[in-house]
Structures are given as C-alpha cells and as structure tokens.
Design brief:
Strand order of the largest sheet: 16-17-18-19-21-23-24-25
Helix content: 25-40%
Oligomer: single chain
Number of helices: 22
Structural class: alpha/beta
Number of strands: 25
Largest sheet: 8 strands, parallel, barrel
Strand content: 15-25%
Distance between the termini: 71 Å
C-alpha cells in the first residue's frame, strides 16, 4: 500500500482565496518540481553494497526544491506578497498532481509549463531521527526550451519581484539568465546550491545576493574537507571566503543542528539552530529555511531577524513526514521563535547572534590606566590621581573603555565620583582588575597558608565584582603577584591547587553574573614560579573550577615569558569557550623581563597571527593594552596601539580571503611567507 500525502489531506489546508489581477510585490521561485517517494529504512541508512528492508508503506508526496520553496513561501507570507513559481512538469499524472498542489497552496502557476515525458521524481531514504539520503530523477526539470528562456523572458519572471529564489535542479543556463535580469531589476537573489553537482561560474556568483549551500554543498563547491568530524566553524568561514574571493557577495551556509553562518567581507552573522524539537524527517528543512529567509527579506526585515525566522521554519519542517506536507505555516513558524536559544554572554557561550569578522574591526579598546602617571610634562590640567588619569585617557582618539585596578584605583572613592569622571571623559568601565596588596598577601592571596587571610582574599575578590557591576562592567580580571613560590620544597603543590580551585568557586558562586577571569603569568620578580604557570595549566584550572562564569585572560607578554606562542594559546582557550579577555603588548623577553612595548613592534607577524585567531574565534570581549610607555607620550602610544590592531584586523581578513586556510591545512610555511610578502606584511 502506498500513502499519498497532499496539502489537501494535511491538517492545515490553505483557506486563503486565490490571488488574481495585476501583479503586486512578489517572490519569484524558479526551479524544480518532483513527485517524491519516501522509504523509511529504520535505525540507519544502508552502507555501500548493503540491502535493507523498509519499515511501513512508501510515502508519496509532492516535492522538488523549487516547488517546495514556492509552497513554503506561500504558507509563510501575509496577503501583501504574491508567490509565483516557474518550472516544468511532465505530461504524466504526476505532472497533474504537482500543478494541483501548487494551486492549492495559492501559488501563481502561470509560469509552469507541461512538457512531453515524465515529471521529475525524488527517492528518499529516511532513517529514524530524520536523517535522509535522496536521489533525484530530473525528468521534466530539464525540459526547458533554453532558446526561448532569454533575457526578455527572464525580465518578465523578475518583474516586481522583491526576492528571486533559485536552485540547481534545473539547467544552469536558467539560473544564470534569471539572476542577470534580477540583478538589473534590483531584486534580491537567493541561490540555493542544492541539486546537481556542477560548477558555478564566477559571474553567476557575483550576481547572487546570497549563495546558500549546506555544508556538504559548500565542501563540493570549494574543494574543502568540511565533512570531517573536527571541521570547525572557522573552517566553514574559510570555505565561504573561497566563494567570496570568486565574486560572491554573501554566503549563507546551513550546518544542520549547528545552526547557520552568514559570511561576507563585512562580517559573520551566526545563527543557532532550534534544539527543542524532535526530528522526524529532514527532507524539506533546507527549503523551509531558505523560503522563510526570503519571505522575511521581502517583508523588509533585517538579516538577523530573517535568519531567526528561517531557523524556526526549518525546525518546524523536520517534525513532519514528507516534503511539501512538512512545510510550516506562518503561525507554526512563529510558535517556535520563543524556543530558539538565547544564551547570555556569561560563561563564554555564544550569543544567539554574533556579528564579527570582515575588514572593519568590531572591538572596543581599553589601556593601562597607570600609564597616565608618566610624562607628567604632557599632562597639564589633569590631576595626578586615578580620576585625573581617567580624564587624561579621555583625550585618546579611539579609546572606549577604562579598566580599573582594585583596590589600587578605586579604594576610598565613591561610585558616583568614578561615574562622573567616566562621563566627562566619554568613556565606560570595561573591567575591574584585581591587585592584592603586598602588605597583606605577600605569602599568597587565594593560596595563603592562613585560612583567615584566604577568606579576606576571597572577600576582596567579591568586592571587586560588586564594583564592576556598579560601574556597568561584567568582568573581573584576577592577577596575583603572590600566588606561587621561589624555592624547591617551599610549597605543597596539591594544597596550592586545591585552594585556588576552592577560592575561585566561592567567588564565582557569589557573583554569578560577573565573568571572573584569571590572567596567568609564569614568573615575576615577586614570585619566580606561579601556581598557574602556563595556558595548559590554566585550562586545567578552568576544568577543575567548573563554573561557566570562570575563564581566562591571555596576556601576550605572559605567553612569551612562558615560551608559548600567544596565537596558539588563543586557539586553545577559545576552543574551550574560556577566552574572556586579552591584554596586548610586545617585548624582547630578555632574562624573563616583561617589556610592555607597543603591540606588534617586536613580533609583527606573531601579532598579526594573534589578531587572526581572535577574529577567527569571534572574540567578543574588549582589547586591553598592557603596555608601559614610561618615556613615551602615553596618549600617542595608545593611539598607535589602536591603529595597529585595526590594521592587523584588516590584514587578517585579507589573508583569509587570499586562501590562508589552504596553506594552514598543508602546513605550507613558504607559501604563507610569500603571501605575507605579496601583501607587504613582512
């Protein structure tokens, strides 16, 4: 027995009356129409050479990427938009069924033609959990008369269209001529990359507003290995930039349960998937996603909102069997919007949307407040106290934030006085940085042998969290000059570690809305061996503290002192979602000294790589310059640091667009160095 599922027999039959009369604002969909047969194969899809039996009866319903997207748009739009479908069906019974289903959905079918022969067919193998494997017999979908489908015909197709949806189950010539006319008409063009595996010309890529592959299609189009288990979001972004380098404006890559990434030269918009639903059949999820995205754009919504609507529609589609029968209504889409993830910033987790990347540096900047003590000959009119230093920092072009040391800068001050100084300087508080006073904590702060002193250190850290919140910041950076040792056999290492873990747990639990960030350092004139001497050790501490609001601040000078590559430290910490902050500087590291020189002045290539990995991992904190311009003008020095970061950010974008990832994949040092040479970066 065969189950035939149509729109009419589905629970949500369309009741809106057919549209007629003159054309209004439209979405034009050009593509395929297929009659699908779905076979449920149970727990898993067959492997090569294997035969499996089906469970239950075959399900026959209407499908095809073009028809699916047309029906999905019709289900999602309000009455201000008309949906028109342009495609080819056969002279068989299947062709009649396909046309009737489009009519039932209120799709304008004046652009559908019947051609001799059979209609397109789709054969879908469905495993438990919704994963599918599909094969398409193109049939009538390749029955277009290419000579008659010229520029004049395409101009008629895109007339009054706000958005044009294309797929790759029809001849490429059709997509190319329609995209050319749509570009001339000023319409948005969304090119779905699903369908036949074939080349896409650079000219066509440039005519599409959005090129929309899933991860497998993106891999085929770019030659990148994205199907491996360890393929990261950065790998996806790099593949998208391959298409951008060829002419694509924006690449919308869908990643299934990992959400989506909208990549352009200007940035990356990251969208999470809806994880609260149980998948039954993923057949038309991508079509529902792209249709909802198109509808939102046609309705004038911004990209972020459009992607949110798309995620909800795609999630709704996987909850039902079949292609077109699974496509959601506007109400079903809206019902899922509240269930989409909305993760707060704390704990290093990704926000629902995050705009990063491109040539324009997105970060805010802060600089060492104590630098304002120096070169007093250049500080006429500014008091030589913390609030005077804040006002002096207000003269720095491009500075956004102030990071205060606590209690050094804030002890004895009122919150209101600090807020007034910040307002006068047109700055905000970025973070509060803890500095435990030597008079009390020289033998340790959180690790002190006296439990009462440890309690005082914990309370002082909590007080810093209170100050941070009072000043509108959400981060406390902890660096202790005293938690470590100088001699062998001086300390019990197990005790040191256990006290650190317990202390940070108490602080994090007392201030759950504040990100508590450890700034590790391997050695110092005050403590030759710190309790947390390396990036790896700091990550183990994060694991043992086991609090979402506990993470790390990476200081370049500290990494260099530890014999580490700062960029590698960024990659490692970011991979664990523990990168809360960064402190930028440079130095020669002679005899373990921390020089605090201008960022990129000594190790420019290393500095560029540092920024590349911050950009690649979508760092969402602010940049703090921990430099010591004791003889230089600290205002000019900070401005140079800001300009350098912005320039290196643009360099990172350029290197990415030039295919840096391919050289990284191949461990090809010479090609990277030659690329830097061509770009004038060395």
């Amino acid at each position: 027995m065969i189950r035939l599922l149509t729109l009419a027999t589905a629970a949500w039959a369309i009741k809106r009356p057919p549209r007629g009369g003159e054309r209004r604002n439209r979405i034009a969909v050009v593509g395929s129409a297929n009659l699908d047969t779905t076979l449920a194969v149970g727990a898993r899809l067959p492997t090569r050479g294997e035969t499996v039996s089906t469970r239950g009866d075959p399900l026959v319903c209407c499908g095809g990427k073009g028809a699916n997207q047309a029906v999905a748009c019709a289900r999602l739009v309000d009455d201000t938009l008309e949906i028109a479908f342009y495609g080819r069906v056969g002279s068989d019974t299947a062709g009649e069924v396909l046309v009737k289903e489009l009519q039932r959905a209120n799709v304008d079918i004046s652009g559908v033609r019947r051609v001799a022969g059979g209609s397109g067919q789709g054969f879908v193998l469905l495993e438990d959990g919704g994963t599918v494997l599909s094969v398409v017999n193109k049939g009538a979908n390749h029955g277009w008369d290419l000579q008659s489908c010229d520029d004049a015909w395409a101009a008629e197709v895109v007339q009054n269209a706000r958005v044009v949806l294309l797929q790759r189950e029809v001849p490429e010539r059709i997509n190319e001529v329609v995209a050319r006319s749509a570009q001339k008409a000023g319409a948005i063009v969304v090119q779905d990359c699903g369908g036949e595996e074939r080349e896409m010309s650079d000219e066509h890529l440039a005519r599409c507003t959005y090129v929309a592959p899933n991860v497998s299609e993106l891999a085929r189009l770019t030659g990148r290995d994205l199907d491996r288990k360890d393929a990261s979001d950065a790998d996806v972004d790099a593949a998208c930039h391959v298409l951008i380098a060829r002419g694509a404006t924006k690449v919308l890559a869908t990643l299934g349960s990992r959400g989506c990434r909208l990549v352009s030269r200007d940035g990356v918009v990251v969208g999470e998937a809806c994880t609260s639903i149980k998948a039954v059949d993923e057949t038309a999820a991508g079509d529902a996603f792209r249709a909802a995205f198109a509808v939102a754009l046609a309705e004038g919504l911004d990209e972020r909102t459009a992607l949110r609507h798309a995620a909800a529609a795609g999630a709704a589609a996987v909850t039902k069997e079949g292609a077109q029968p699974s496509l959601p209504s506007r109400e079903e889409r809206d019902a899922l919007l509240p269930s989409l993830p909305d993760v707060p910033r704390g704990g290093g987790k990704r926000k629902w949307w995050s705009l990063r990347g491109g040539d324009t540096c997105p970060w805010k900047f802060a600089s060492r407040l104590n630098s304002m003590k120096d070169r007093r000959d250049l500080a006429e009119g500014f008091d030589n106290d913390p609030l005077g230093w804040v006002r002096r920092q207000g003269t720095i072009d491009g500075l956004d934030l102030v990071d205060f040391n606590f209690p050094e800068h804030l002890g004895g001050l009122k919150v209101e006085d600090v807020q007034v100084a910040l307002k006068e300087a047109d700055l905000k508080c970025g973070a509060v940085c803890l500095r435990y006073p030597a008079s009390k904590f020289r033998r340790g702060s959180l690790t002190h042998p006296d439990p009462e002193v440890r309690r005082e250190a914990i309370q002082l850290t909590i007080d810093a969290c209170v100050w941070a919140q009072a000043l509108g910041a959400s981060e406390v950076v902890v660096w202790s000059a005293w938690d470590g040792y100088d001699y062998s056999l001086q300390c019990d290492y197990d005790q040191l570690w256990q006290r650190l873990v317990a202390g940070f747990q108490q602080v994090c639990d007392a201030a759950p809305d504040v990100r508590v960030s450890l700034e590790f350092k391997p050695t110092d004139e005050n403590t030759r061996f710190f309790a947390v001497p390396s990036t790896g050790s700091a990550l183990v501490l994060c694991q043992d503290v086991d609090r979402e609001n506990f993470g790390l601040t990476i200081d370049i000078g500290h990494c260099l002192a530890a014999g580490e590559n700062p960029a590698q430290s960024i990659a490692q910490v970011a991979s664990k979602n523990k990168l809360f902050g960064v402190q930028l500087n440079d130095g020669y590291q002679r005899i373990g000294a921390e020089d605090g020189l201008v960022f990129g002045s000594v190790h420019p290539t290393m500095a560029r790589e540092f920024i590349y990995w911050l950009r690649r991992n979508q760092f969402d904190g602010h940049i703090y310059f921990d430099t010591f311009p004791r003889s230089e003008d600290p205002v000019r020095e900070c401005e140079l640091n800001i300009r350098t970061v912005k320039r290196f950010y643009g360099d990172a974008a350029a290197l990415e667009a030039d295919g840096l990832q391919g050289n990284l994949d191949a461990h090809d040092a010479m090609s990277v160095l030659e690329l830097l040479e061509r770009r004038g970066m060395m």
